[in-house]
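Recap for those who missed Tuesday's class. We walked through two folding examples back to back. For each one, the amino acid string is listed first and its predicted C-alpha cells come directly after. Nothing is annotated here on purpose, so try labeling regions yourself before you check the end of the notes.
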Amino acid sequence: MRDAGTTWAGTHRFGALGVVEASTVAQVQEAVRAAPGRVKALGTRHSFNDIADTDGTLVTVTGIGGTPFIDVTDPSHPTVTTPAGIRYGVLGRWLQERGWALHNTGSLPHISLAGATATGTHGSGVLNGCQSTALSRIEFVDAAGDLCTIRHMHPEFPAVAVGVGAFGIITELSLTVQPTYDVRQDVYVGLPWEVLLEHARDVLADAYSVSIFTTWTEDTVQQIWRKSGVRAGAEPPDEWWGATRQAVGDTRLVDGDPGALTPHGIPGPWIDRLPHFRLTHTPSNGEEIQTEYFVPMEAAGDALAAVRALGDRIVPHLLVSELRAVAADDLWLSGAYGRETLAIHFTWAPHPEPVRALLPEIERALAPFDARPHWGKWHAFDGAAIARVTPRLADAKAVFETLDPAGRFVNDYLTRLGIREPRAPRLDG
C-alpha cells in the first residue's frame, strides 16, 4: 500500500488508509475480499471533490491490462469491449487505427473510461448523449469480491450506467461504436451576448459539437469552438451567428501551452478534434477548480441571463466558463436525464474559499431551472437539493442498496447527497 495522495488538480486530499495497485481483475477481487472495511475504485483522479474517497482502501483500475476487442456479431450494433481503466485517448487511438469511433468524447482524452461514464461526463452536441449513453455492458466486482455483469436491457442498467461508484468496482466495459469519421474544428469570435441569450439552442445545434467559452461580463462571448462533420465541398462559414471565423493561430483561453490544444482549421480524425486537448500534453490548466450545472435547454436563455447577472462576482475567480449541449437520456443519475440539456461549466482559479462562497449564490440563481450538479466537480448541494432535481434518485438508491447491502462502497459523499444510506463498515478481514 501507499499514501493515497490528491486529486489531479490538488482540490481534494484522499483520506483512504492506503491504495492497492491492481494489474488484473483477480487482484481487484482479492483486494475487495481482503480489505478490512470500505473500498473504492481509483482511476485517473480527474475528480475535484471526495466522490472517489473512502475511509478504507482505494483500488486502482488504471493498471489492469488487456487489449480491447471489437464485436461485430450484430453488424447493426458493433461494440468495443475494453478494460475499464483505459484512458479515452488511448482507446480512441486504438479504435481509429482500426476504422472505428465513439459517438463523442469529453474535453479531456486523459480521463479513464470508468470514471467518465460513472459520473456522466459529456462532450457537446444536441444529438450527442453523455459518454455513458454508449455503454452496453458493465462488468464489476461486487462487495463480496465476485465478478458480475449487467447488460443494457437489464432493468437496473439505468441506475448503474451513471453509478457514481456506489455499487462496485468496474473492471470492464462494452460500448457502442461506429465507423470512423472526420471532424473539422473552427474557432469563432465576436458572438454578441444578446444573440446567444435569444438563440442559445440554435447556436449549439448548428454543428456536430459546439463549445462556447465566456467570462460572463464581456459584450461578446470569448470564443466558440465549432466542430463539424466533414463533407465533400463543404467549407465553414466565415461569418456565423454574428461571429467571425478566426485564422489558424493561438486559440488559448487561459494561460497555458497553445500546443496542448487540438488543431483547428484543418479536418482530422474524430479523436484528434472532439477533445479540446491532445493526449500527449498536460490536460487543461492544472491548478484549477471545476464546477458544472445542467439545466433544461428550453430554459437556456433565462438560465444564462441569471448567471450573467452574477458576472461581477464571478469574474475575479474565474479562468473561463464553457457552455455545451447534451442530448436527453434515460440514465437515472445523468445530468441530462429526461431533458435536452445545457451544461454550464466553470473552470475556477485556485481560490477555494471565494469559490465555496460563490457556489450557493450561483445555485440559487439556477434553482428555478432545476439545475443539477456534475457529480465529480465542486458544488454546494445537499441531499434534499439533490432529491429535488433527481426524479429517479430513490430508484437508483434502492438498486445500490440491493447490490451492496453491507455498504462496502459507501462513502461520505454518497451519504451526504442521499445516494446511499449511512452504515458502519464491515471491519473483519
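Example two. Treat it independently of the first, because the proteins are unrelated.
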Amino acid sequence: MVSISRRDLLRGLGAAFGALLTGKSLTRRASAEEGAKAGTFRFVHLTDIHVQPELKAAEGMAACLKHVAQLNPAPDFILTGGDLVMDALEQDVQRTTLLFKLFTRVLQDNTSLPVHHCIGNHDVFGWGKKHGVTPETPGYGKKMFCEVFGYEKTYYTFDHKGWRFFLLDSVQPSEKLLYEGGLDPEQWEWLEEQLQKKPAGMPGIIVSHIPFVTVTVLPDAVQDSQFRIGAGSLCTGAQKLSLLLSQHNVRLAISGHIHMVDEVEYRGVKYVCDGAVSGRWWKGANKGFPEGYGVFDLSPDGSVKYQYVTYGWQAAQT
C-alpha cells in the first residue's frame, strides 16, 4: 500500500499532564483512556469516481472498494465526495439512468459499509440541455440524485461518535457556465442555523465537492499577467465560510473536484482537497497524483489524521 501522509498535529498534551497531577486513581485514568480509545474512529472519502461502462471504470471502482475492505483498522463508513458518475450534465435520461444504476450496483456488490453521498457537478442531470433534455424531463437537475439515494435535499447533516458532519451542495447554476462553485442563499442560511444548533463542544466536519480553500488551483491561475481562477474550480464565499467554521469548532473541511491532493491549515481548520478514485478520469495519474482515496482517523479531542492511499489500479488507457 502506497500512501501520501502528513504528520499529526500534537494536541492535548497539556490536558494529559494535567490529569496526571490531579491525583485521580489509576482505575479512573484507565477508564478515561478506554473511553477515548472507544471514541476514536476511521472513515474513508471516495471522490471523483466518475463511473461509466467505458475505460474499465466499474472494475476500478470495485477494486477501490475491495481495497477499502482490507484496511486495518476498518472504517466505520464511506463518504463519497461527488462526481460519482461520468457524466449526467450533458447526457440523455437513458444514459444517466444507466450510469446511476451502474454506480449503485458496483457499490452494493463490493461493500457492506454505510455510505453517505455528496453531490458533484457531474451528478447533476441535464443542465447542459443536450439530447432533448429540458427542465420538464423527469429527474432533471438534482432530482435524479435525490431520487436514487433517497434524499430530500442535496445537503444534510449526520452525527457519528461525537462528531457532526455537514454534507453540502457546492454546485450552483450559472448564466455563463454549466455550473459554478458555491452555496445558494437558502443553504447558507441553513448552514449558519445548523452550526448554531451544534453543541459548542462537538467538533464538526464540512464536506463539499468543489473546494472552498485549496492550493491545487494556483499553479495554473496566472494567465496573461492576471490571477484567474474559474468559477467552476473554486467555491465563492471562502472568507465567509472560513470565519463561520472557525467560530463553531469545525475541525475539518473535505473536498475533491480537482483530482489532486493538498492540505491547508487556515483559521484553525484543516482543509483537505482529496485525490480522485479515477485519477485522470480513468486514464492514469493526474499531474502526478495517482488513483486513490482519503483515509481519516478522528479522535475525541478533535484531532484529525489524514492520508491519501492508492489502491494499485492500472489504467486501461493512458
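Answers for example two:
The CA atoms of residues 181 and 235 lie 4 Å apart.
DSSP finds seven helices and 16 strands in the chain.
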